[in-house]
UniProtKB/TrEMBL annotation, chains A, B:
Residue stretches spanning the membrane: none
EC number(s) from the headed UniProt entry: 1.1.1.23
Protein species of origin: Pelagibacterium luteolum
The protein's name in its UniProt record: Histidinol dehydrogenase
GO cellular component labels: cytosol
Sequence positions that bind substrate: 237, 259, 262, 328, 361, 415, 420
GO molecular function, one term: zinc ion binding
Amino acid sequence: MTAYLSSAEPGFAQAFETLLASKREASVEVGETVAAIIADVRKRGDVALIELTTKFDGMTLDAAGLRFTADEIEEAYRAVDPDVRSALELAHRRITAHHQKQMPEDSTYTDDIGVTLGSRWTAVEAVGLYVPGGLASYPSSVLMNAIPAKVAGVERLAMVVPTPKGVVNPAVLAAAKIAGVDEIYRVGGAQAVAALAFGTDTIKPVYKIVGPGNAYVAAAKRQVFGTVGIDMIAGPSEVLVIADSTANPAWIAADLLAQAEHGGGAQSILLTTDADLAKAVDAEVDRQIGTLRAPDTARAGWNEFGAIITVATIDEAIALANRIASEHVELALDDPQSVVEKIRNAGAIFVGHHTPEAIGDYVGGSNHVLPTARSARFASGLGVLDFVKRTTILGCTPAALSELADATVALAEAEGLQAHGRSVSIRLNR
Amino acid sequence: MTAYLSSAEPGFAQAFETLLASKREASVEVGETVAAIIADVRKRGDVALIELTTKFDGMTLDAAGLRFTADEIEEAYRAVDPDVRSALELAHRRITAHHQKQMPEDSTYTDDIGVTLGSRWTAVEAVGLYVPGGLASYPSSVLMNAIPAKVAGVERLAMVVPTPKGVVNPAVLAAAKIAGVDEIYRVGGAQAVAALAFGTDTIKPVYKIVGPGNAYVAAAKRQVFGTVGIDMIAGPSEVLVIADSTANPAWIAADLLAQAEHGGGAQSILLTTDADLAKAVDAEVDRQIGTLRAPDTARAGWNEFGAIITVATIDEAIALANRIASEHVELALDDPQSVVEKIRNAGAIFVGHHTPEAIGDYVGGSNHVLPTARSARFASGLGVLDFVKRTTILGCTPAALSELADATVALAEAEGLQAHGRSVSIRLNR
């Protein structure tokens, strides 16, 4: 049942804690199964990868068929509705333009005693991109993961996508082609993650794996972490709308449903200073659900995880929003700008009545891979920084080394690391 | 036995692969023990934390004694040798100055169709810092972890350090005081990580946990990841020295031993174009080991994990270095600058004959928490970016929303997300 809370009621603090702690994801214990799959692919390579794909995806294939050919990709691209194709191309242009501004700059300087300190950024050479099959096989997610990698300068971007019974979403291949993905393989699950991490005859290993997946994929990413880098583990999507009396209830209802229709634990919360708006939105959600072609998922999501919280002041809403730390925060307010700077924990903030969250999902230009499950308290959305790494550069003149020698030797000795100190003093004939 | 390889020999490719794949860490399976400890602290809070500390650290304490008092910290600070204290203060100034340059800048712009796109950085509010007890209780590591957090603007930095039998390294407390750590608790192990992640009556929860630790600590960090953020899992330290005939064998030997004396799987590798240098360094390592006050760890480390590789050209050395992706790379070369830009995978590069790696460990100014075990292929050293997170800001004018509407609806429909499209069209009366 959708939660209705008011900060004026006596049990509010406890009810809010319960809402914060609510678990929205079925926890499936698949660690051992996944470990066995990874060990198998690591040992038997392509042979295991093919057997597992046959078993889990209900299809036959051989090593030569693991990789999509250029012709197959081209054919899929042509099969996509031209309107969708040009929408993907618009999204590609806008996402690329925004992410180009995220490229960090190298910096080198020499300080007053002659020590040169530098930070140099280089792209991760090879990256794997996991794309789910079936219902959650979203071309927009291909763009959102692939574009920052390509903007960063990743030379080899290898995508994997399962094709149950041989079926693939042509729009996913079209998005990959538009984004410049270098290789695409028709494999998925933990076996695909293992192949990317350790390599097989057909799939060369990568250094980092990104992209969403089911419980098996998430477990596999956790297990190969260390051998390769991984991105964050994505949880169910969520939106928090902060609205005052100037908000349009029908628009807010539409935004809440746009989140609820994802299913799988997706959560929509309305935080408002206006009790009348709260009622109007609630009624409007019910009305709009009835007009959806496939209302069941949205209805179930809203009923199970939705919440409407009324508060006395916008400051109170801000304080609660910072505790919720939502993936998406919409500010449907008369004066949203003054609130933006006070929202500290959020993956993305959507400012004003004319910025529905869906704009950020597709063509706004920003990334839609954002921290979920309160992780906006400590994590950022996906971006160019996820595909580069910084190397520190340090250089001393003989004089600088001499100036720093006594302190280095003192600390090395205090830590019981005599040879550390000697590596300095030996250069100074001390 | 120290490995001696030459790229000119027929079995080199295989021998190099073996070196790359060699495991330098005892893998201890502690997952279940750690899970039980975490569950206990989560359930019973301070009571469990105290019981476990009594059991593992061999000491008695009560809730009031969990936290070091200001007087205790001040007393420890005064107990530290003044030379060490001023070395810590020099290190603090230099590390702070360098990390201040890492603070990312906010950026907001409005594009040609009226979409405002922003990236705003805010500090993680509360961070936990794990500091090992016993032999590896290094004051320099306290500085390296605490300073970037404080430069980033972390308001609450809570440190935990186990004090077996009640003994603590005063220099560790002094470093914490110098770095501005806000709270220090005398607890360690998985129980300390659990307390930081979930909170107890005495220790408020944090949003991110950083710092090195033993296998239990590493496992605990992995298990609480998601509830809180964590830094990378640190492996044994390593150095790769690239040297030509201009290098001084005694200096290189000292650098190799400075790494080997860490023990615990630490690795030193020399890559050189000069076979005579290789021999001279080898002899010099043997000679210098004999002059150390405590030679056993360095000797064992060099014998078990050390390697000397001779190559024909510097370009060959660079190619191998990029595959090794060492935490530390020293360039003991006549012309190191021309090589710096070709080393792509390295945590830090130490340029020229007068820059021993130990300078970077203490007072160079850069961070000594760097990616190990080949993870420099995809990861960076610790820095200010690890203590901030980026929030995306998106704002549309009605005209901008209208311009992006068709593409958004086309993509939403292609992905079967009707309510996403409607959240846009409803605002445009479409």
